[in-house]
Specification:
This protein is an alpha/beta fold and 162 residues long. It has helices at 10-13, 21-30, 46-58, 78-85, 91-102, 130-140, 144-152, and strands at 2-8, 35-42, 63-67, 88-89, 115-118, 121-126. It has 7 helices and 6 strands; from the N terminus they run βααβαβαβαββαα. The model has no long low-confidence stretch (mean pLDDT 96).
Length: 162
């Protein structure tokens, strides 16, 4: 499974803040056989985010995980950029992440993160904090290999006979 990690942070892109969520995500996806083939820190700019998501999905990256830009700040553009490039929504993923997060903090309801499919890429928005990114990815991690198998046509029959 080829993975891309896109960290969205104005300060991080200028070298003013260290990215800890991106490396945490890298560590976690290795546990499910993910190989990080792209990693980038970019500003919270709508067009930059859209361009990167399009480029990576066109390259055939199976799983694109964004971190940051999902809140209420005026510069939080990740959900809008993702929604602009996906072809199909995957709302259950974002719902599962928020549900899992709500078990830990009521602030999880403030996430505007989305998930969806572009070509054969699954794009999922995660929070920018390391803790939030870890907890959110923990909620869905075990399901991701099967999701990618389905998306790429490599999954067998999911239904078991009665």
């Amino acid at each position: 499974m080829k993975v891309g990690i896109l960290t969205l942070s104005d300060k991080g892109s200028k070298g003013e803040r260290k990215d800890t969520s991106g490396p945490a995500i890298r560590e976690m996806v290795k546990k499910i056989g993910g190989e990080v083939v792209e990693y980038k820190i970019a500003p919270d700019d709508l067009e930059t985010i859209k361009k990167t998501l399009i480029e990576w999905s066109d390259q055939g990256i199976h799983l694109i995980l964004t971190t940051g830009g999902t809140g209420f700040s005026p510069r939080d553009n990740t959900p809008e950029a993702t929604a602009a490039v996906i072809e199909k929504q995957a709302p259950g993923i974002a719902e599962a992440i928020r549900y899992y997060g709500l078990q830990k903090t009521p602030k999880a309801m403030l996430s505007r993160a989305v998930a969806g499919i572009r070509k054969q890429s699954l794009i999922i928005n995660l929070p920018g904090s390391e803790r939030g990114a870890r907890e959110s990815l923990e909620a869905i991690l075990d399901t991701l290999p099967h999701a990618i198998e389905l998306l790429t046509g490599k999954a067998g029959d999911c239904a078991k006979p009665a």
